[in-house]
Request: fold
Amino acid sequence: MTATQLKHKPNRRHYPPEFRLYSTVMVFFIFAWPFLASNAAFPFPRSAEAIVVVDPGHGGVDTGGRGRAGALEKNIALTLSSLIANQLNRKNDINAFLTRNDDYSLPIFDRTSKANQLDADAFISIHVGGGFGGREDSVSVFYNTRPPELEMSLQSDIQGMDSFNEWSSIQFFHLKQSRKMARIIEKELVRNPMRLKTVHIKEAPLAVLEGADMPAVLIEIGCIGNPLHEEWLKDHDFLSELAVKIATAVYTFLSAP
Ligand SMILES: [Zn+2]
Reply:
């Protein structure tokens, strides 16, 4: 083999500069991949997604309140809850679920147990105010009060702590956060008042909230016995506006430190 022949023989040690660059980059990625992959997962880990359960009150034979023109609370609650869940699902980091997505009965404790099974970060039960007075243009945001037996156990000795373990008292552990969520919802609703101008925060013993092992509120919109409110509550645009506000408030609550 002559020197001339060698000169024309491809020499594998003399790769073009671009090839060497590509190889270096490839080797870097092969070794760095496990670290890059784990770091890339940090900004949006699956576990950081918040779960919200929206509960349309009543359903099936349990119609809830009935307006003079025939509107039923169970239907208004389902429409508004679906709109709230849709709004929340538009956010990348929230997954919203409904306790019922159609017109059927659902036992009260199945609602919170569904939220507990999903390990939800917030539970919102949607209702329409009853009664036929209807003078107040208002929304009520309820959070669950402490059960009386728990108050007693708090004032007695440590053995009274046994009652803490009762499932019906579980919401007590979230009282502060539930109140905080109620206040944020109030703030959002009064920020740009719509037809329902006043918002009341109320504390009450509510069976639908007591088994919720996460911050939980019940929102009562208007008064179905008031013909004007009934008109509004049948208006899809009005419900959509409300849904945006409630979803914004829930998102703010979940994003707050
Ligand atoms: Zn109701």
